[in-house]
Amino acid sequence: MAKKELGLLGLLVAVGAITGILNPRFLSAVNLLDMANLIGLFGIFSIGEGIVIITGGIDLSVGSMFAFLGVIFIDLLTNHGVPWPAAILLTVCAGIVLGVVQGLLVTRAKLQPFVVTLCGLLIYRGAARYYTEDSTMGFGYGDDYDWVGWLASGRSWGIPHSFILLIVVALVMWVVLHRSVFGRYLFAIGKNEEAARFSGIHTNAVVAGAYVISGGLAGLATVLLVFYTNSVSPSSFGNFYELYAIAAAVLGGCSLRGGEGSILGIVLGTALLQVLQNLVNILGIPSSLNFAVMGTVILVGALADRVLQQRRARAVARVGAPEVRPATPG
């Protein structure tokens, strides 16, 4: 565990302890398991966002992708009678397709990730609202999805399935990011894409792959979120979730300049952000301040990254400066 992760873990424990002292309900089993469920839900797509950020990009379309994919998922189940395993697979595949499209626009059309994903944010939300005529989609009274609902939002041995799935996803992505050639390429591109290209890395394929991962994990998270809420309101479902993912990734050590980050850091960042939001709720502070918390986290993370960058630059300058020796008398 690196220094960043250790510091983040210490901060998480400290904030949790302080919150528990202020209000003992925070440490109750019910509250901790509810938080674990939310950490699982948000952690899965935050990992996808973090992968994109490591390449030096950003994905602003995640929240609207939830609305679009959520509408598709419920429509497949309720209106077309698609079996739930196929509906889940098709939803994840749809997320992958959206990731491919965004990745190609960034790499082939050479558009800025901010522009591409901002357009995605608007297009996906608009398409979902148009398809549903701006009405909420949900499961019918006669529909029986208890089994898949339990699978997506239930618990085993008292542990939420979303949290178990997060652990599985985190382990797989840890291997991909930290123990594979593809992961090394992601970091290399984030640090210097031009240098990575000259070194023989197929940068377009790697960057597009990052958006594919983000889209696939967004599709997977959509299924969990749909059964968590039991309905999809296309005008509000997933609103600002992309900011939550960015905040979790930045808080977890992902630099917005690219080239830095870790899976463990993103998971810890998600957990800390959820603890902070839980602190806001449990102390009776207006829930509208949740967005202020996310904004503050992103700002503090960006400032901390800038300070660390300046310190590293000064350290390199000191090491590289020639040693000045006093002149000896002739």
The radius of gyration computed from the alpha-carbon positions, rounded to a whole number of angstroms, is 22 Å
Question: What structural class should be given to the helix and strand makeup?
Answer: mainly alpha
Backbone shape:
globular
Strand content: under 5%
Question: Percent range for helical residues?
Answer: over 70%
- pLDDT < 50 runs, ≥5 residues: none
Q: Count of DSSP helices?
A: 13
Structural features, described:
- The protein has 330 residues and is mainly α.
- It has 13 helices and 4 strands.
- The model has no long low-confidence stretch (mean pLDDT 88).
- It has one domain (3-315): ABC transporter involved in vitamin B12 uptake, BtuC (Orthogonal Bundle).
- The chain has a two-stranded antiparallel ribbon. Strands 2-3 form a two-stranded antiparallel ribbon.
Give keywords:
globular, mainly alpha, single chain, two-stranded antiparallel ribbon, 330 residues, 13 helices, two-stranded antiparallel sheet, ABC transporter involved in vitamin B12 uptake, BtuC
